[in-house]
Amino acid sequence: MFGNLKNLKDKFEEVVEEHGDKISDGLEKAGEFIDGKTGGKHTGKIDTAVDKAQDYIEKLGEKKD
Fold it and tell me: Which Pfam family, just one, is annotated for this protein (predicted)?
């Protein structure tokens, strides 16, 4: 079971390394979409969540370098 999880993690890191910029752009667009749907009521929280997710994606992409 742990071997399968490690394989999944490794595969995810490979995808992030190859497509991290696209994932980051998608997170940004998702945040903008959600912010629009909530009428801007939670802009700060949404921006914080998107920033943290983008930071995490960036760190994962750097691990393979």
Answer: MT0933_antitox
